[in-house]
Design brief:
Two copies of one chain form a homodimer. Chain A is of the alpha/beta class and 418 residues long. Chain A has two domains: 231 residues, Aldehyde Dehydrogenase, Chain A, domain 1, CATH 3.40.605; 144 residues, Aldehyde Dehydrogenase, Chain A, domain 2 (3-Layer(aba) Sandwich), CATH 3.40.309. Chain A is built from 15 helices and 16 strands. The first copy, chain A, has a seven-stranded parallel sheet with strand order 10-9-11-8-7-12-13, with helices on both faces. A four-stranded parallel sheet of chain A has the order 5-4-3-6, with helices on both faces. A three-stranded antiparallel sheet of chain A has the order 1-2-16, with no helix packed on it. In chain A, helix 2 packs antiparallel against helix 5 and helix 10 crosses helix 11. Chain A is globular, with a radius of gyration of 24 Å. The interface between A and B is large, with 65 and 65 residues. Chains A, B: Its main location: cytoplasm. Chains A, B: Belongs to the gamma-glutamyl phosphate reductase family. Chains A, B: Catalyzes the NADPH-dependent reduction of L-glutamate 5-phosphate into L-glutamate 5-semialdehyde and phosphate. The product spontaneously undergoes cyclization to form 1-pyrroline-5-carboxylate.
Chain lengths: 418, 418
């Protein structure tokens, strides 16, 4: 079978299975998730052996250490995978929720019911734990899933897929409700993202290159997460202690995450007093400063920032620093250079806080809080599909709800339109 | 200037203006809308003259009567346009609404704020009243708009655009917040739908051909409205009086609207008693019956339905009729053949009603109500951008909210992540 025919068969099966997952009871979905967790525990040695073969191949093919690290399963990470499935089982079922019912002058009652999107395609790199995680999130939200993991993790993905199928079977759900692509042919991705008749949304989880390629080729909606160029703006009415604490946490708690701050803006009236202190704190954490001209006068260790620095997501011990006139210039700068991920203002001034909240055009906008809070678990979503840098459908951290939609429902008693 | 350069300039200006419309106060937006209405009233004779020239050309070019009818403005329709602007001014402002604020264990408060999508492109046929309507809906929802109307209405559209600009100016908003494309070059549409850097969403308002073409070419999200193949399912537990009333209204109140019923399903246990009565009523309204074999035994005037009939949106005095075993087969049939627009069940049985509501995968699903209620005004939205047959972002009747998104906001007091 050629890859196109194969993918169309997978798509057709997913569309068919999505009808069953959409109407599946909460109990059936949870039974499947718990049975998947059990199967993963029971077949742990099998999973580890499959993964060991993947890892051996990856080493022979010269994959770098970071990729091998993400690829490798351990007894602990297999147990974490099983626990992850149990956690998703414990989340409230989003499907069927009825909201906003209102009686209209005609007599009908109108409101909304939450429903699955249908078929979700998830494309990810060689991280086998994503296979179990993605399967769980799609099933709990009533969707069928087509999963395409990095080719280096094929054996482990197939072993996990077998556990997922065992769980679905145990709950009386179609085993095609979660399909893991069996070919490593790259053309499979091209077909997956271009079958609107079978796939309702694509969620790419991986690097910027992967996501840009998929966005370009996709013929269906994509929930995409590009870069995180996050800002901390220290207002002229900032509390100095909060500024120091929030900047330290936003920039230095973890350097490589998308919600890490990459740029610091300081209001001119407090720059003389605060820029040296803030930059000295960053220096103690080994963070290099790339500053505007004014910054460099106050912070001698800063090197000159270029235009590219204002756009940069360093994911490293570097930060760009700019002195701005006021909250207005800060907002202007952020809306020009930020990646619309997460930006925070440190201020005690009510009007500046409200203006920042309203005018900064990003997925998460914060007052007096660390950018590191931009995360599905911190926001209370219970699970995270990803963090969207789009505006359409879902912005910022996306939970199970991001894989659902709302249809209108009308409850009548024989009403007709006049 | 070539058309691509022109469209990019329009796009750049719209993106720039969208920052001003996003932060515009409710008062400024309403001032602009009321000033537009005033300008339209004051320049009525000018608008009518521009339109008369359009209509004369259209007649010379042999446009059909229905198109000329939609193209033609009258004193009454110009007044209706002005009143439409006033009605949008009277609607609540969706922007800035804060919802779902919850305190998290970390101390932060997390919730959502409603924000505009940014730049909305609206593509429509030769109906000049849509120019004013679309401008109003985009502005009220805080978006900048790029409007492209049918080439036959160019003169009237430009005259209306001048009134729109006058209104924007009166409110201190950039005149580029609403731009009406000045070229009739068809290539302009191709560019408009393929500038993700400048346009956030496209709303095509027109026939199926236009919408299919745009969906195929678009590089940005499209809120699309394809066909309305709506079903009335008369359950075995239906009240006969409600069935008759709802079917009559759904099919015969207006034949040519997208929420008109095109297919009737009857549960087998009540087919002998109800099919003849229901079809006789349709016959009195001049509606021709295309029935399945069983229907034809009960309704001699029915001609045989083909597979295509189950898919058909007739927009005419024709209906397809099928006898089904029960609510399960009805749902199966609807999910196979319907266009996911609007479907209704007539039943007194609670369990069948709930099952139909939950399992029918359409934008509007109804119990004991006419499909004709699927409409933004009937649902209480105040205005309607269109009726979406998509699942992503917005389903069914789309009001101002469909042109908005929600960002996350976090209110802290110096919290950091541990």
């Amino acid at each position: 079978m050629d890859v196109k025919t194969y993918m169309q068969q997978v798509g057709r099966q997913a569309r068919e299975a999505s009808r069953a997952t959409a109407r599946a009871s909460t109990a059936a979905k949870n039974t499947a998730l718990l049975a998947m967790a059990q199967a993963i525990r029971e077949r742990r040695d099998e999973l580890l052996a499959a993964n060991a073969a993947d890892v051996a191949d990856a080493r022979n093919n010269g994959l770098d250490a970071a990729m091998i690290d993400r690829l490798t399963l351990t007894e602990k990470s297999v147990e974490a995978m099983a626990q992850g499935l149990e956690q998703v089982a414990a989340l409230p079922d989003p499907i069927g929720e009825i909201t906003d019912m209102k009686r209209r002058p005609s007599g009908i009652q109108v409101g909304k019911m939450r429903v699955p999107l249908g078929v979700v395609g998830i494309i990810y790199e060689a991280r086998p734990n994503v296979t179990a995680d993605a399967a769980a999130l799609c099933l709990k939200s009533g969707n069928a899933a087509i999963l395409r993991g990095g080719k280096e993790s094929l054996r482990a993905n197939q072993a996990i897929a077998a556990c997922v199928r065992a769980g679905l079977k145990a709950a009386g759900l179609p085993e095609t409700a979660v399909q893991v692509i069996e070919t490593t042919d790259r053309a499979a991705v091209g077909h997956l993202v271009a079958m609107p008749e079978y796939v309702d949304v694509i969620v790419p989880r991986g690097g910027k290159g992967l996501i840009e390629r998929i966005s370009k080729e996709a013929r269906v909606p994509v929930i995409k997460h590009l870069d995180g160029n996050c800002h901390v703006y220290v207002d002229d009415a900032a509390d100095a202690g909060k500024a120091l604490r929030i900047l330290e946490n936003s920039k230095t708690q973890r350097l490589g995450t998308c919600n890490t701050a990459e740029s610091l803006l300081i209001a001119r009236p407090v720059a003389v007093s605060l820029a040296p202190t803030l930059c000295a704190m960053l220096g103690r954490h080994g963070v290099a400063i790339r500053g505007c001209e004014e910054t460099r006068k106050l912070v001698p260790q800063a090197i000159a920032a270029t235009e590219e620095d204002w756009y940069a997501e360093y994911l490293a011990a570097i930060i760009s620093v700019k002195i701005v006139a006021d909250v207005g210039e800060a907002i202007e700068h952020i809306n020009t250079y930020s990646s619309q991920h997460t930006d925070t203002i440190v201020t005690e001034n009510y009007t500046n806080a409200m203006r920042f909240l309203r005018e900064v055009d990003s997925g998460s906008v914060m007052v007096n809080a660390s950018t590191r809070f931009a995360d599905g678990f911190e926001y209370g979503l219970g699970a995270e599909i990803g963090i969207s840098t789009d505006k359409f459908h879902a912005r910022g951290p996306v939970g199970l709800e991001g894989l659902t939609s709302q249809k209108w429902i009308v409850l009548g008693d024989g009403e007709v339109r006049s």
